[in-house]
Amino acid sequence: MIASAETDWQSQRNRINHDWLKNKFLLALGKLINVLDDRIEDDDFVRGFVANGLVAWEQEYPSVLSLINGFQDRMSPRVLFARPPLSRCAQDQMWLPVVVDAMWWNRVGVDELAKSARDCAVKADAAYGRLILLINNEQPPVEHLSAVPLRNYREEVFSFRDACSQLAKAIEKFPHRILVT
Amino acid sequence: MEPEFEEPIDETNAKQKVLAQWDLILAHAGDRKHADSLKTNLLVFFGGRGAAGDRRAGDAEYLFVEFYGLLKQDRLEELASYFRDIWSYSQSDRSIRPACLDPPTATTYVDTLCVLCQGYLVALELTDEPGPASGSGHVADALAKMGWSDIKPDELGLLKQFNLPTSSFWLEPFGEANSDDIEARLKKEWGGDLPKEIKALVDHIGVGSRVVESETVAKAYLAFYKRLEGVP
Q1: Is the ipTM beyond the 0.85 threshold?
Q2: Which of A120, A161, B43, B225 is the most buried (most CB within 10 A)?
Q3: In chain A, which residues have their Cβ closer than 8 Å to the Cβ of B174?
């Protein structure tokens, strides 16, 4: 339903960026780095996260791209014409949403915001791909894995965490409301 | 809006023992300094908008959420269920995000009039309709702030579908509301008396005429801009 497009998009962003990426996934990656650096000891966490938590990236990546690609359609002031009062505009004024959308696009810099976020997402996915390839080739398999062999991949874990952090910042830059000025 | 919070978390040993029996604790953002001493499976700090600048404290494992409205008893179960769900790595059957975690949204008369001002100024610009103050500094300033300067009307097909605003342009969106109703609603949204530039526009459109001076519309738009962009 178009009338709730803004709320839907913001909810989707909150769930993906705030609840999952920042407050869950990045925290877990940070803990993994701390384990690899011997600052804390928690092999159970390593096994659990590598076996179940890390692959959450694969599940969420399409949602991240969908969020970025959906910004234009769901956060443009054009959506305001789907609900009162602007839905009552006369039919012969239907050029109005077109021009309002075009001006908003220029003001907000939609192209730059979306491209930056998309680039960050693609980089994070590539970093994940490199890391998961190494882990999947590891012996013994992940369910028996401890922090010790993973230390060889600290650089890959760090790169992935850094890319996810950049992605979170890029998504945060999208406006938090429909901007009419 | 900050949630109601009755008392800070006590650090006494007795209270720590009680807290340790719970598998989920909701605590106000102001008590984050106690995070390390709260023994629980899942710790969630909540705060209002703007309180989220320090969501992460080192490698502490807790959630930080923005919260809108009052934290009432009947919302706790819903929140607890949701937090347990998103904390779990099992992503299936995700529970619905409680509404109190999202900012309230509504299409306001402020937004509506702001959009109409933009359309009206563009319409005058497209037709080069001469007005008493056409091309004034206010009109040019408003058009620039609206993002009109880089638009190519022919590329957007605006020239094909374009129609001059009719007498219904201003009033039709507001239905049966007259200028008094519109002003009252705007004042409520504004939180007090309207700037004279916006009051002047409302007075003009209340007459029901298509013709409103571009200068009047531009000044009103700039007043909206100042407010919505937080320009001092």
Answers
A1: no
A2: B43
A3: 85, 88
